[in-house]
Amino acid sequence: MKNILITGGAGFIGSNFIRYLLEKEPDLEIIDLDILGYAGSLENLKGLPDPERHTFVQGDICDADLVNKLMQEHKIDTIVHFAAESHVDRSILGPAPFVQTNVFGTLTLLEAAKQAWGDTRRDTPSAGEQNGHFHHISTDEVFGTLAPDEPAFVESTAYDPRSPYSASKASSDHLVRSYFHTYGLPLTVTNCSNNYGPYQFPEKLIPLMILNATQGKPLPIYGDGLQIRDWLHVEDHCEAIYLVLKGGKMGETYNVGGGNQPANLDLVNRICSILDLVHPASVPYSSLISYVRDRPGHDRRYAVDSSKIKAELGWEPHHSLEEGLSDTVKWYLDNMDWVETILKEKDYQAWLDKNYEERGKK
Ligand code: NAD
Ligand code: DAU
Q1: Bridge partners of 56?
Q2: Contact between 54 and 46 (Cβ < 8 Å)
């Protein structure tokens, strides 16, 4: 691993991973390809450790000429593919960009990798020789939804995506695996659960609730608020990806989950309690909770079984939800300049109007 192409490195998880990698790998050169869409910002890349080893390129992963040029010019030997349209609610209001970036964009990267590293199922280079590593970041949402008593998702759980977002991610996962079987492309996949932590765009549950609360705005709970997600601190996710890059077996998939599964309502109440302590207001923040119309096709429960990555690569999450959530609340309170710049840059209000106004109160 000398020259790595990171796609989507100006987004939430990608920018955290770049920070992590620059600390971990002192000789690595990072090429960061990001279109700087609504969720990507150079603000997320300010103050990187050792920034001269990070080259930012603004561009589209669907642009085959650009991707091929980067592969050649920078002698890329590793790709970590984060770039995606990532928000379920946006996919419900407009699925087409999800198919374009998540499916077509992934295909473009796979083709570029095959062109650069050869087709080991034929004769370029000799079969079995590993000339690169393509790591694809996927999600637990491809497995669909769990009933209360069903066991957690394992790597062999059948795919059952139920939103345009998860359907596009499932498509990309199938394409990625097909390149291993058909062309021998050296690759791995991780399917992880809901990430939280610094630099997350405030359309997602945790930062949205923190910001709404500090502004005295309603805290919109979809439906009855008893849906369950498996919360994973972004730094624990970065470590899992790093371990897969170092020791993952080619062609394999690894599930990564935080092992923290409160219902949404419980999670929002915990955020309110933390804010009551560190940023007290005249009334408890939980009084802002407001039930709104549910997300169509809302998956009820996710839970991820991470036994394989724990047993094979020694991964363990280090952040408890209690401490991780408290740190995240404090990070947003301490970084209001970042918040304000991001919100101004990205026309955030237009999204809030579109997603929440018509939801109203239940
Ligand atoms: P994000 O929305 O914060 O960031 C996505 C980044 O991709 C942005 O910087 C955006 O500008 C960039 N991008 C979008 N389209 C692009 C294109 N066509 N070309 C180049 N760049 C493009 O998303 P995130 O939360 O950081 O998620 C990163 C990856 O992890 C995604 O693949 C997502 O599906 C996956 N994932 C996320 C979570 C989570 O909880 N956030 C959980 C599981 C999996
Ligand atoms: O599970 C992994 C997935 O987690 C990733 O693949 C996605 O990229 C990521 O966005 C996330 O998807 P979710 O839909 O689970 O995340 P979101 O933060 O949008 O919502 C979390 C839960 O909170 C979900 O049950 C919907 C609910 N919710 C969300 C918002 C934004 C609310 O009740 N109110 C809200 O305003």
Answers
A1: 32
A2: no
Using the predicted structure, report yes or no on whether residue 345 has a pLDDT greater than 90. Answer: no
Cross-strand partners of 192: 139, 256
pLDDT of 124 reads 54
Task: Provide the token pair at 230.
Answer: 């498996």
Task: Considering every ligand atom shown, identify the ligand nearest to the alpha carbon of residue 161 and give its number.
Answer: 2
- Full-model pTM: 0.98
Residue ranges of domains in the chain, CATH in brackets: 3-200+231-259+296-319 (3.40.50.720)
- The catalytic site residues sit at 140-141, 165
Name residues contacting ligand 2 (CB within 6 A).
86-88, 139-141, 193-194, 204-205, 208, 220-222, 227, 229, 264, 295, 302
pLDDT-derived band at 315 (thresholds 50, 70, 90) equals very high
How far, in Å, CA of 17 to CA of 44, rounded? 11
CA distances in angstroms from 237 to 209, 243, 247, 301, listed in the order given: 22, 10, 15, 20
Return the pLDDT at 118: 86
Indicate if the alpha-carbon torsion angle 146, 13, 165, 226 is positive or negative: positive
Q: How far is CA 229 from its chain centroid?
A: 14
Angle at 143 between CA 187 and CA 245, to 5 degrees: 25
Q: Are 109 and 140 in contact (CB under 8 A)?
A: no
Give residue 129's pLDDT. Answer: 52
Residue among 80, 41, 35, 8 nearest 343 (CA): 41
Structural tokens at position 119: 């087709």
Torsion of CA 349, 351, 356, 358, to 10 degrees: 110
